[in-house]
Specification:
The chain is of the alpha+beta class. It has 5 helices and 16 strands. A 6-stranded antiparallel sheet has the order 7-6-16-15-12-13, with no helix packed on it. Strands 9-8-10-11-14 form a 5-stranded mixed sheet, with no helix packed on it. The chain has a 3-stranded mixed sheet with strand order 4-3-5. A hairpin with a 4-residue loop joins strand 6 and strand 7. The protein is globular, with a radius of gyration of 22 Å. It starts with 11 loop residues before the first helix and ends with a strand. About 10% of the residues have low confidence.
Length: about 260
Amino acid sequence: MSSEPEEEPVSVLQRFEKRLEGLVEGAFAKVFKGVVHPVEILNAMQREAEAHKAILAGGRTLVPNRYVIDLSPYDHSRLAPYAAALAQELAQSQAEFIGEQAWTVYGDVIVEIERGDGLDTGMFRVTAEVYTGGEVAPVQQPAYDAGPQYSPYDQHGGGYPPHGGHGGGPRSVGLVSGDGRTYPLQMGSTVIGRGDQANLRLPDVGISRRHARLDYDGNQVVLTDLGSTNGTMVNGQRVSAVALNPGDMIQLGTTTLTFRVDG
């Protein structure tokens, strides 16, 4: 039996600070001087998790897994070069904290850092929510699972029936949002995201700047996730690339789009 004294456990906050120091390569004090400190943000995220606990069947405790951090314009501009890496570190530390409390989350812990216009320097806002990636009860349609069982680009027997059931040009295809807005798809590629480079821009903080791409060749539409932070779901199943069928429900962030084929 070892007689060595037990080491003092390292807290989540201490591990987080250590990783931050490596993240900014020694410029830690300089970068965060005069702006909101990431440890304050992590503390606030922990308090939000505590404040939004829900008891599930079986006695498990569910807490939010998605945290949107609004920073003042000044803080946001100062931290912008580190925003993506900082969000990742915050998510990892929050996941560690939640694990230590033996709480439950749906899926991965997600952190988004945004510019909060109207916030004074040094102030920030944390919004926490339980994010399931789409419908609360995913539709069980294994046929729509991500396409390892077939190549989404295989044209044999694929595609949509032409107009009226017999020959003709490309079908009219598009996406319909939950509030009834329609987004027609053109031949070629359409990038969905919330950034300036997206062809179809959606104002949803859960959507990456370049989130997913739709490729329409006149025969079928293939949806491809572009390595998005929060993933892309079709009918409740996370996908990397899949050929869409009429009526498929696509979830990106908190936005749901229905794939429609007209004619």
